[in-house]
Amino acid sequence: MRILVADDSKTNLTLITSALNNLGHEVVAVSSGREAVEKFLDETPDLVILDVVMQEMNGFECAKQIRNLNTENWIPIIFLSGSVDDTSISQGINAGGDDYISKPFSAITLAAKIKAMQRIADMRKKLCEAKKLQTDNDNLKTIINHSHKKNNQPNTFKVLNCMTNNSNISIKLNSIRKIVPIAELVPIPNSQEYVVGMLNLAGKSIPVLDLSLRLNMPRNEKYTLETPIIICHRELDELSIETGLIVDKILDISEVRTLDIQQKDVEVDRNDKYFSASVTTNNGLSFLLNVENVLDTGLFDHIQAQEAKL
To answer: According to a count of CB atoms within 10 Å of the terminal CB, is the N or C end of the chain lower?
Structure first.
């Protein structure tokens, strides 16, 4: 972690800087509360440690100003103090602090406190990412639902634009059911490499494919909480088959004129069968996915065979 430390005692500042360096952290050391406020925006620390008693600006006032500077992202603040009584703790919490370390400090206690703050920060980050993704998905669902209900202009259709393996991919909206965030998937035994697993959605089991791997492209990015799954469907023998497609990023929705479809400009090596055309969208040239060929119908027979063995 990058840790901003403020203490007007050279001895204390040297001791805590050395201890933090030994724990593998990067330290930005300053000798006053005012300097800590100035450095906060420049250094973007992951954690702040403030001595309570400093002459130019005490730790409480410094913490208040840091909190006022940073209203969007939570950065943990730990106070260093030789007096950790109820009054001091109350003042510290009200000033925006999150924890206390008494002086003289123990290296073991210091490491434990930092680890606890890092754990909380990681959890908050994941929650924020999940909340943002849910908001984005809700907005996209609204657009998709509206687009399904609204008649397109003659000779036009709407597509969802996304990116996978640095390639722009477009999917017709009438092939999409919904978009969901990445979730825990149940492995499907003896399946192809591109089959990531099974998703339980509203009591229904839906196979999920990695679109990059399905298109014979490498998987360059790891899955994160922001990784979306696009639930697509196709009709087969009067049955609606649903499959999830993992992409790297969802971009936006475009309206495409049939006159602008470039049937002969698709050049994707071995993957021609997976694309029906290329189209020009807000993001430039994009490949129009042939959903019927991408959704592996043989996969459903494989799943049924695996379930029959159970």
So the answer is: C
3-state SS, residue 67: helix
Q: How far apart are CA 126 and CA 179, in angstroms?
A: 19
pLDDT tens digit sequence for 47-94: 999 999 888 899 999 999 999 887 677 889 999 988 777 888 888 888
**Alpha carbon distance 92, 193 (integer Å):** 53
Q: Are 243 and 236 in contact (CB under 8 A)?
A: no
- Residue 83: Cβ within 10 Å count: 12
258 in Cβ contact with 223 (< 8 Å): no
Give the predicted TM-score (pTM) of the model: 0.54
Please state, as a whole number, how many other Cβ atoms lie within 10 Å of the Cβ of residue 212.
22
Q: Which is more confident, 5 or 82?
A: 5
State how far the Cα of 258 lies from the Cα of 273, in Å rounded to an integer: 20
What's the mean pLDDT in 122-138? 69
Model confidence over 190-206: pLDDT tens digits? Answer: 788 888 888 888 778 88
Distance in angstroms (rounded) separating the CA atoms of residues 29 and 35: 10
Q: CA-to-CA distance for 64 and 269, rounded, in angstroms?
A: 58
DSSP state of 26: E
Letter string b/e over residues 285-297, b meaning 16 or more CB atoms within 10 A of that residue's CB: ebbbbbbbbbbbe
147, 136 in Cβ contact below 8 A?
Answer: no
Which residue is it, tokens 């050279």?
A: 10
Phi, psi values for residue 225, rounded to 5°? -65, -20
Q: Which domains does the chain have, with CATH numbers?
A: 2-124 (3.40.50.2300), 151-309 (2.40.50.180)
Contacts of 131 (CB under 8 A, 6+ apart): none
